[in-house]
Write a structure and sequence with these properties.
about 160 residues, mainly alpha, Arc Repressor Mutant, subunit A, two-stranded antiparallel sheet
């Protein structure tokens, strides 16, 4: 395995009923995918979440931290911490927007970091596709896109 061990440990409990509930499977696959993706990004100094944040700011210049928190499954506190880190690295800057709001903007250095992060993510995505096989990869993507939409509706019925 290219990005580290841990597979045998996850398979040790694979036959346990608790390990096969949909919620547990989604958590386990998500956590392992995030670990592998972050390892693939190691040379960039970024995480998947950081690249996603840079993507949002680059495509929505002037977006506020509150807007990012509403659009992502991250708490306002987590967004604030990530923005502070990106700001310290010189990747993001805050600018006064209309009224009292502070908009976020990507810097030139942030654009370069975003490009490097996206390239690393693309390489990891190709490795996932290769590992899963093209058909299974596309089926899983379609299922997860559908699930994302349905879970967004569910969240509306069960606010946090």
């Amino acid at each position: 395995m290219r990005y580290g061990g841990g597979v045998s440990a996850s398979l040790e409990h694979a036959e346990q009923p608790w390990a096969n509930g949909l919620g547990h499977l989604l958590w386990e696959v998500s956590a392992r995918t995030a670990q592998l993706a972050d390892a693939a990004l190691a040379d960039t100094g970024l995480t998947v979440a950081a690249v996603g944040l840079l993507d949002q700011i680059a495509t929505q210049p002037g977006i506020t931290m509150a807007e990012i928190a509403r659009q992502t499954p991250k708490s306002p506190q987590a967004i604030s911490q990530m923005v502070a880190r990106m700001e310290r690295l010189g990747f993001v800057e805050r600018r006064l927007a209309g009224g009292r709001s502070i908009g976020l903007h990507i810097t030139d250095a942030g654009g370069r970091a975003r490009a490097a992060g996206n390239a690393a993510e693309d390489g990891f995505e190709q490795e996932l596709r290769s590992t899963l096989g093209a058909e299974r990869y596309e089926q899983l993507r379609a299922t997860l896109r559908d699930a994302r939409a349905l879970l967004a509706e569910m969240r509306g019925r069960h606010p946090a």
